[in-house]
């Protein structure tokens, strides 16, 4: 989550859904919250009932729109134009929360002369290397020192941007030139103003398709929820992240919230609605290739990985909280390698794997297709249905030597070799597939203990209700026993490559007839302990860099402060923010950066919006939330010269993870595709980029174009319509957990495609009939749901039709259908390497697709059409 | 025991269908078939033998109170979870010849499957079209008002699962008052077509499921004037007697003349 990470310091939602009740306005964009987060949406309804204005901006009129006060349709892929329009509106009308902006953001920082904006360079920032299609971001770094070395900050190398504030060297941003009057032409505020000068309501109307009046109504409604007495919140989800510029869209929202003074305050913030259970947890304790637990970067071969000292030097910030970087990595290594981790061997640093290339989902499936991957474990995922260009992904599976699928049901990924569409079309022949497939039954969540970490960074413990049936086992069981057996094998084989595996601590106790590992012990290890006496630590401030402490994930410390106190298991909510229920990282702070809820002098901005404030009598921060600030640091604290870490940040700097303690309107490092969000069209678009004709789409994005992963031109007569994939309340992601259940399957029993009555009449499509949907990659058939909830939009003088396709169906289950992801391309956003599934180009025609191989002929015939 | 009831509020229903699923899970109701309808997001069609809570999806060309939604023409999307009304004078109960349908101590209307002979009179006698026969099992089914849960002091599964409190469960008179306050509040906020659907003034004699709706009852498949079929008994029997009399008279006259 580098969009939030670079803006504020941490890659997590800044607030909790229940805090939305405190909002004066809620802007939901890039999310169908009512549909995909119905339980969290209760707080939006509650807020609306209390008078909060709820705004939904989305290509489709969805269940969320139905409950909103204002809905505006939007051309998929034009989000930055819209948000830039709002930023323009705020600055142009001087509606920014000036005192907040001056003190808590980097608006006053004067940028180096060498920095050049997209408006000056026709669509790229200074530092663009057209040959390598990446940025040297050294001109973005403000401040006296541009140091920190070998790693080009934010470069689009094999490293991607999940870590800290993205791939980037530790650099001193603490000591910079400022202009508190915000009038210097090179100060961030003025650069921002110029950057968005062209994002006028007229431009928004012309290219987003949002009528001018509706846009102004939204701007007025949301931007007036700002100031001492008011706050507004923004909720987003995969509508933003699944684009070739996702983090930059989130950055645009972050800038808007910073200029309105809405971060760190009750009812403010940005709520990143995570895709499903424990997705936040899976970036905190990552299932990603490029980070270690707690957002520490995975060492990168040849860049920062020679030894621990180099690695720490490259990532430790001299000022701000990341000064403690060494404590967290050493404690992590100590948790991994126990007694094997010694000062002499760099605490086992060289046993950590190195990033050697693009090992993201997209990257390794392309390599798999090319025969470069031997084996694959698939757990809790169904790439045969949910992966982009799932045609390619299913075929790629056939190139493996072995495939292990652990799931509750035999899903499409495990059956690709005998009942995939490719088998039906003769592209794959079961007798020719050499992949050995192992299907292992997995336990469901009610059949195991453990935690979820959800949207609001909240760890919640769940108890096993029943034993799993038959041979089904939990993931913990599987990983533990697999690791145990591998370690036994390694014992027989003393080659150096096995030294790390042999050193790995793997001493969880097991119990019961199933030999299930005790999950509390895992959580205790994650929490951390002092090595000498195995006493649990109660917070990350207790972690040390001398090997005396161990912690599996520094941001989770405090979740298990004592043997008998599992705070994830707390079930006694005491207030609206939910203190007493579960444990929110870090340190049970529910609203991040909440120092900003008080004025620079420590008093609340207003009685109505008070959250955390300075108690002069007791000389400490106090309030309704756990202060996200050093408790005893006075508001008027001024750091001594040469101070390091948190001590180098003044008492009015709420964004403590950032080296300068401010919220970053301008991101001097951490992003591969620019310090300010700029409108680019998607990788496929129905129009040319109105702002920068020379840079149609995000210059940093990787198209991964190849014969089996083709793109349409922009625009393309063969594919005139704009399509987005999405999910429905009734199903769960690829449908593996819902298509098998009669009570869910019956609610949305068929793959359908939502189209407007106008498009239906243009193409002779009837509601309830069949349509064939084609993109450059694939062909599927779906039932036609003709509805006025889909509106054609006038874009730059022509009518653009948008269509919607939910992606829940496959070849298995009680209800079956084609998979929408056959239509999506593999592509990579440069920071997080997510594909673009929103705003891609397609054609929709009446009737069913051809069967068998003829379906491919039908697609090829369409491609050949001019 | 106080009179329990449902108040279902369309203005805060988000159409998530959690009530439908919770109801089926709790009561072990089979699926309703996997039939895609093409009618908005509604694929369980209507209340029936295997759907005891049913969420309606209404796409309408009119605006919803002060909501700014439609672009070139007014538009709104309404959701409402329908359920058995548990009438004071229940048509199904009166029509049941076997005594399978009874009024419980909770004042709900309950079908005892082991007594039901599957005659189907209740199906045609329900003024709301709620009761339905499962043709495989051969008997009638409908909402039990979660009799088992209520007996154990739990609220019905649908109300428990509702994330927005669109389905409220409580004491009938209190809910009636709540509904009035709610409708007034909605009207004050500009939802001028907000109204209570609580057909107390008809022969059904009031119900144990009342609704706050936006617009006219007909749009939600609610009969504006629900009547128990038995109120037609007197006129029907009178008509029959009169017909018989006329027939006899005609025959008599035919022979007499």
Could you please describe the fold and organization of this structure?
The complex is a heterodimer of chains A (866) and B (257). Chain A is α/β, with parallel strands linked by helices and 866 residues long. In chain A, 24% of the residues lie in helices and 14% in strands. Chain A contains 26 helices and 29 strands. In chain A, strand 20 and strand 21 (620-623) form a beta hairpin. In chain A, helix 5 (79-92) runs antiparallel to helix 9 and helix 5 (79-92) runs parallel beside helix 12. Chain A is globular, with a radius of gyration of 26 Å. Chain A starts with a helix and ends with a helix. The model of chain A is unreliable at 144-160 and 166-172 (pLDDT under 50). By secondary structure, chain B is of the alpha+beta class. Chain B contains seven helices and ten strands. Chain B has helices at 18-27, 91-95, 121-125, 147-151, 157-161, 172-188, 233-256; strands at residues 4-9, 53-60, 76-83, 101-103, 109-111, 132-134, 139-141, 167-171, 194-197, 209-214. In chain B, strands 8-1-10-9 form a four-stranded mixed beta sheet. Chain B has a two-stranded antiparallel ribbon with strand order 2-3. In chain B, a hairpin with a 4-residue loop joins strand 6 (132-134) and strand 7. Chains A and B meet through helix 3, helix 4, helix 24 and strand 25 of A and helix 1 and strand 3 of B.
Strand content of chain A: 5-15%
Q: Please estimate the helix content of chain A.
A: 10-25%
* Quaternary structure: heterodimer
Shape of chain B: globular
What is the radius of gyration of chain A computed over CA atoms, rounded to a whole number of angstroms? 26 Å
Compute the CA-based radius of gyration of chain B. 21 Å
Principal-axis shape of chain A: globular
For the secondary structure, the number of strands of chain B is: 10
- List unreliable stretches of 5+ residues of chain B: none
Q: What is the mean pLDDT of chain B?
A: 95
List the helices and strands of chain B in order: EHEEHEEHEEHHEHEEH
Question: Can you count the helices of chain A?
Answer: 26
Give the mean pLDDT of chain A: 94
The unreliable regions of chain A are 144-160, 166-172
Helix content of chain B: 25-40%
As a percent range, the share of strand residues of chain B is: 15-25%
């Amino acid at each position: 989550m580098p969009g939030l990470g670079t803006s504020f310091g941490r890659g997590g939602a800044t607030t909790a859904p229940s805090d939305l009740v405190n909002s004066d306005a809620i802007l939901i964009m890039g999310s169908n919250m009512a549909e995909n987060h119905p339980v969290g949406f209760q707080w939006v309804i509650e807020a609306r009932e209390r008078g909060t204005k709820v705004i939904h901006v989305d290509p489709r009129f969805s269940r969320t729109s139905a409950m909103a006060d204002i809905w505006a349709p939007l051309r998929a892929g034009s989000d930055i134009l819209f948000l830039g329009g709002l930023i323009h509106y705020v600055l142009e009308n001087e509606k920014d929360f000036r005192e907040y902006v001056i003190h808590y953001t980097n608006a006053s920082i004067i940028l180096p002369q060498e920095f050049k904006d997209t408006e000056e360079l026709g669509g790229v920032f200074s530092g663009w290397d057209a040959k390598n299609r990446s940025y040297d971001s050294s001109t973005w770094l403000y401040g006296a020192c541009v140091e920190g070395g070998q790693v080009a900050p934010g470069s689009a190398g094999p490293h991607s941007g999940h870590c800290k504030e993205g791939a980037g060297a530790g650099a001193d941003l603490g000591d910079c030139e400022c202009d508190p009057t915000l009038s210097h032409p090179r100060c961030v505020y003025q650069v921002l103003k110029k950057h968005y000068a062209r994002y006028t309501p007229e431009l928004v109307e012309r290219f987003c398709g949002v009528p001018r009046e509706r846009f102004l109504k939204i701007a007025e409604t949301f931007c007036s929820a700002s100031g001492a007495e008011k706050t507004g919140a923004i909720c987003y989800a995969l509508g933003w992240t699944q684009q070739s510029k996702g983090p930059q869209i989130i950055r645009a929202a972050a800038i808007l919230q910073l200029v309105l003074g809405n971060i760190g305050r009750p009812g403010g913030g940005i709520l990143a609605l995570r895709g499903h259970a424990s997705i936040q947890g899976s970036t905190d304790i990552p299932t990603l290739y490029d980070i270690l637990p707690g957002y520490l970067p995975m060492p990168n071969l040849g860049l920062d990985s020679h030894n621990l000292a180099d690695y720490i030097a490259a990532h430790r910030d001299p000022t701000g909280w990341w000064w403690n970087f060494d404590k967290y990595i050493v404690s992590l290594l100590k948790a991994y390698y126990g007694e094997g981790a010694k000062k002499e061997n760099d605490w086992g640093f060289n046993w950590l794997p190195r990033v050697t290339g693009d090992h993201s989902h997209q990257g390794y499936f392309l390599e798999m297709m090319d025969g470069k991957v031997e084996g694959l474990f698939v757990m809790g995922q169904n790439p045969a249905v949910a992966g982009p260009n799932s045609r390619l992904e299913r075929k790629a599976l056939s190139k493996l030597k072995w495939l292990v699928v652990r799931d509750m049901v035999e899903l499409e990924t495990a059956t690709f070799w005998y009942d995939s569409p490719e088998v039906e079309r003769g592209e794959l022949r079961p007798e020719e597939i050499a992949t050995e497939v192992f299907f292992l039954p997995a336990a469901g969540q009610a059949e195991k203990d453990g935690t979820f970490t959800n949207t609001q960074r909240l760890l919640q413990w769940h108890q096993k209700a029943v034993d799993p049936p038959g041979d089904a086992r939990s993931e913990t069981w599987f990983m533990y026993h697999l690791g145990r057996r591998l370690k036994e094998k390694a014992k027989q084989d003393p080659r150096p490559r096995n030294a790390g595996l042999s050193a790995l601590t793997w001493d969880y106790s097991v119990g019961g007839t199933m030999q299930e590992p005790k999950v509390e012990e895992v959580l205790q290890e994650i929490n951390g302990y002092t090595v000498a006496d195995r006493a649990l630590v109660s917070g990350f401030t207790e972690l040390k860099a001398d090997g005396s402490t161990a912690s599996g994930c520094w941001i989770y410390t405090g979740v298990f402060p004592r043997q008998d106190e599992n705070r994830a298991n707390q079930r006694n909510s005491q207030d609206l923010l939910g203190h007493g229920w579960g444990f929110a990282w870090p340190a049970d702070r529910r609203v991040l950066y909440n120092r900003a809820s008080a004025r620079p002098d420590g008093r609340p901005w207003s009685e109505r919006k008070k959250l955390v404030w300075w108690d002069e009598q007791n000389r400490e921060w106090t309030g309704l939330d756990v202060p996200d600030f050093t408790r005893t640091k006075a508001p008027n604290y001024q750091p001594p010269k040469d101070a390091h870490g948190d001590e180098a940040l003044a008492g009015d700097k709420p964004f403590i993870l950032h080296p300068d303690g401010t919220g970053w309107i301008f991101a001097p490092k951490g992003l591969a595709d620019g310090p300010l969000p700029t409108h680019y069209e998607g990788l496929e678009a129905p129009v040319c980029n109105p702002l920068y004709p020379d840079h149609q789409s995000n210059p940093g994005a990787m198209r991964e174009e190849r014969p089996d992963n083709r793109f349409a031109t922009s625009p393309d007569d063969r594919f005139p319509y704009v399509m987005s994939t999405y999910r429905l309340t009734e199903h769960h992601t690829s449908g593996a957990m819902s298509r098998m259940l009669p009570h869910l399957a019956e609610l949305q029993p068929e793959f359908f495609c939502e189209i407007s009555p106008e498009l239906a009449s243009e193409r002779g499509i009837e509601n309830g009939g069949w349509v064939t949907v084609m993109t450059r990659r694939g062909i599927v058939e779906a039932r036609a749901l003709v509805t006025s909830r889909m509106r054609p939009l006038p874009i730059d003088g022509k009518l653009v039709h948008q269509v919607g396709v939910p992606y829940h169906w496959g070849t298995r289950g009680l209800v079956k259908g084609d998979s929408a992801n056959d239509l999506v391309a593999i592509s990579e956003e440069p920071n997080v390497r997510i594909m673009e599934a929103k705003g891609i180009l397609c054609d929709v025609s009446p009737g069913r697709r051809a069967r068998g191989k003829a379906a491919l002929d039908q697609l090829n015939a369409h491609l050949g059409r001019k | 025991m106080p009179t329990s009831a449902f108040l279902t509020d369309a203005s805060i229903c988000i159409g998530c269908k959690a009530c439908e699923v919770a109801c089926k899970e709790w009561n072990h109701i089979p699926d309703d078939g996997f039939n895609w309808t093409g009618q908005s997001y509604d694929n369980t069609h209507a209340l029936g033998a295997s759907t005891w809570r049913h969420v309606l999806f209404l796409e309408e060309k009119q605006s919803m109170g002060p909501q700014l939604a439609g672009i070139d023409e007014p538009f709104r999307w309404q959701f409402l979870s329908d359920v058995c009304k548990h009438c004071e004078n229940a048509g199904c109960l009166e029509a049941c010849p076997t005594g399978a349908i009874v009024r419980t101590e909770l004042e709900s209307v309950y079908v005892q499957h082991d007594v039901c002979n599957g005659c189907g009179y209740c199906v045609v006698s329900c003024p709301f079209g709620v009761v339905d026969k499962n043709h495989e099992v051969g008997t009638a089914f409908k909402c039990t008002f979660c009799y088992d849960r209520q007996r154990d002091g739990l609220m019905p599964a649908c109300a428990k699962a509702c994330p927005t409190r669109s389905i409220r469960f409580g004491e009938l008179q209190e809910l009636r008052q709540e509904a009035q306050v709610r409708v007034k509040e909605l009207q004050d906020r500009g939802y001028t077509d907000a109204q209570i659907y609580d057909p107390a003034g008809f022969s059904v004699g009031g119900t144990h499921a009342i609704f706050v709706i936006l617009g006219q009852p007909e749009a939600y498949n609610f009969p504006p004037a629900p009547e128990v079929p038995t109120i037609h008994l007197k006129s029907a029997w009178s008509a029959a007697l009169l017909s018989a009399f006329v027939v006899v008279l005609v025959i008599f006259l035919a022979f007499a003349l």
